[in-house]
Amino acid sequence: MKRQKRDRLERAQSQGYKAGLNGRSVEQCPYQQMEVRSYWMGGWREAREDKNLGLYK
Prior knowledge:
Distance between the termini: 38 Å
Family: Belongs to the ribosome modulation factor family.
CATH superfamily: ribosome modulation factor like domain
CATH class: Mainly Alpha
Organism: Vibrio aerogenes CECT 7868
Number of domains: 1
Protein name: Ribosome modulation factor
Helix content: 55-70%
Subcellular location: Cytoplasm
CATH topology: Arc Repressor Mutant, subunit A
Strand content: under 5%
Order of helices and strands: HH
GO biological process, one term: regulation of translation
Number of strands: 0
Shape: globular
Number of helices: 2
């Protein structure tokens, strides 16, 4: 059970990261559940920081 939950949260963070790199808005988060949404937003923030630091073009 814990592995499945972790996988779901890791996937949400990964999708958020990809969305942040592609320039999508944070309002386009597809998740409604607060825990999963926070992981997505964390990935999104991380990607925006990496892009601002010049790690990605």
